[in-house]
Amino acid sequence: MFNLVIFGPPGAGKGTQSAKIIEKYNLAHISTGDMFRMHITQETELGKKVKELLAEGILVPDSITINMLEEEVNANPDVSGFIFDGFPRTVAQAEALDEFLKTKNEKIDLVLQLDVNEDEIKKRIAERQKVSGRADDDASKLIKRIDEYFQKTVHVLPYYQEQGKLVKIEGIGEIETIFSNITAEIDQYI
Ligand code: AMP
């Protein structure tokens, strides 16, 4: 198995690159954000619990998030590996993921950080707003999620750096160039 974590602020191109990685390497994609949104759409109990938090761009409590993730991993026993997207977002989640994978004799192999600085991300959003001609509510929520990333989620990076698993990928540039830098890293494992 090959297990990858992809990191990066909202708007860094994580979704785009994840889709390309999945296609090339046949990994199962687990995006906790997508899973929460699915629960909200389907109006499940979990969906009702997390709806407000997502609307505000606030992190869902670790225990809820970890449980949901573990269930999803358990539901996919025959895959060749996972790409974790949007998880872990806290050190507690990273530790829980390691513990959980250990029970399956598995581990995180590689953590890719799509590196785009805060100013660049906010500039992209401002440009998008200019094009659409409105300073809408979605944009302010997006800014909130970006702040959450730079204030909280980045603290997970040293956890993986200490384990020697963290690789930084320049996140500004052509999609294909970024992807080829990503595959150069993954190909060292697969
Ligand atoms: P995303 O699509 O990954 O940006 O996630 C959207 C929203 O889902 C986040 O703003 C959080 O409210 C929630 N969320 C997703 N993943 C996590 C996580 N690992 N821990 C806590 N909350 C999360």
Low-confidence stretches: none
* Termini Cα gap: 9 Å
- Helix and strand run: EHEHHHEHEHHHEH
Q: Helix- and strand-based class?
A: alpha/beta
Bound molecules: adenosine monophosphate
- The structural domain count equals 1
What is the CA-based Rg, rounded? 17 Å
- Main sheet overview: 5 strands, parallel
Binding site for AMP: 32, 37, 58-60, 86-89, 93, 134, 145
GO molecular function: AMP kinase activity; ATP binding
Region (NMP): 31-60
Binding site for ATP: 11-16, 128, 173
List keywords for this structure.
single chain, 190 residues, alpha/beta, Rossmann fold, five-stranded parallel beta sheet, 56% helix, 14% strand, globular, binds adenosine monophosphate
Would you write up a description of this structure?
Residues 31-60 are annotated as: NMP. Pathway: Purine metabolism; AMP biosynthesis via salvage pathway; AMP from ADP: step 1/1. Helix 1 packs across helix 9. The protein is built from 9 helices and 5 strands, in the order βαβαααβαβαααβα. A 5-stranded parallel β-sheet has the order 2-3-1-4-5, sandwiched between helices. It has helices at residues 14-25, 32-41, 45-56, 62-74, 91-102, 118-132, 137-151, 157-162, 175-186, and strands at residues 2-7, 28-31, 81-85, 110-115, 166-170. The longest helix is centred in the middle third of the chain and has 15 residues, at 118-132. The model has no long low-confidence stretch (mean pLDDT 92). The protein has a single domain, classed as P-loop containing nucleotide triphosphate hydrolases (Rossmann fold). With 190 residues, it is α/β, with parallel strands linked by helices. Residues 10, 32-33, 36, 53-54, 57-60, 65, 86-87, 89, 93, 145 line the site of adenosine monophosphate.
